[in-house]
Task: structure prediction
Amino acid sequence: MKRTLIISLILSLGACSMVGLDYFRPKQALPEQYQSVSIEVSDTAISSDWWKLYQDPVLDDLIAKASVNNTDIKIAVARIEEADGYLREVGAALFPQVNLDSAATRNKVTELGAVSLFNGMSSTRTNYNVRLGTLFELDFWGKLRRSQEAARAQALSSRYARDTVDLSLKGLIASNYLFLRSLESQIALSKENLHTREESLALTKRRLEGGIASALDVSQAEVAHTNLKAQLSELERQRQIVEQQLAVLTGVMGLKIETSSLDRMPVPPIPPAGLPSSLLESRPDVRLAEQNLIAANAKIGVAKAALYPTISLTAAYGGESKDLGDVLKSAARIWTGGVGLYLPVFDSGRLNARVDQVTAQQKQALAAYERAVQQSFQEVNDALVDLRQHTESELALHDSEQASRRALEIANHRYQSGYVAYLDVLDAQRVYNDVALAYVRSRQARLNASVSLFKALGGGWQEASLKSEK
Result:
């Protein structure tokens, strides 16, 4: 009967409600959908490996290497392991801890004390004991369970932190790779224009020797030629720097990337207009902020539970004898059992101050979560605007590039026929060079905007989420 009562008491204490409020996700005053976009869209779901949509094996290889070698990823993974260990440590507190305690002692007592030794009793004594002991805190107020709740949220936040680093890293590699390809296209274009200006300079010199052109035309052709050489040198310098940046991001310091063209990379599909704002839940940084909020909310319960009594059960069982061979005999059995209660009576407000601290931390976590959601929503809208504007800009610059090329051809023919001055040729060359470079940069900006959109959406969108809104 006594054992039944004790077991019933323990179960009833463990089933008591926890101190502190349970977590509920705060509501956000956000629109139900993003702004519409007047560009071609797709209803196809996009998986988390969004960078493969650019159909570039070199980019795929760079991201694969970064996932293994990047130091930020390694740090994030180690933090996950640390958080998992802490979660197991906190969870272990919910179960009894059993310890083995054994000792062998030998001591001498005084022979001249107030109590005399009996005849034949030795003043030197030997004692052996071995005991199994346990100490178990009853989670009456939910302090241990709230601690486990906070640790679990922190473990999840470490995973979302790793996902955030991973998503940012992949976006950074993709952006730098697009910049590299853009520079290579600009370098190829500058070399082509440089060859054209070399031919133009040689033609002008021949016309000067024939008395058709002036020395001014030759000087202007030389200036245009040397300016383009300086432009080419600057582009090559930037390419080397970007390639080295990719080497650092991927952890391959001797990285060398073969030259390719930006035009070979397709523009990936665009999400449909009016994507539900609930897709923000797929962003790891938003989930990270929410898990931090859950942990902060649980810590309030831990701090409040400290204001109430702490009830613990203690027990020990073993043997004790003067001879080592008798320590396990039934006559040597010893045991103890008890209940302990700890109640703070006066602490000058220390525990209440701790409650105020964790409450303030919860408010900070709440504000950080709201800011993460708002910032995420803004980033998606900004990426959609950038994508729309850069798409329109690229289309316009493509037509302008074709027109400036035709104008340059006409100017060269008219100059060779003697109908216009060489200044018209120089102006046509300058316009074509500027417009052609601007067209390449606009395509890079359009592709970069798609990368930003993938990052803003947490790496893609799922078809199920789209159908739920139709």
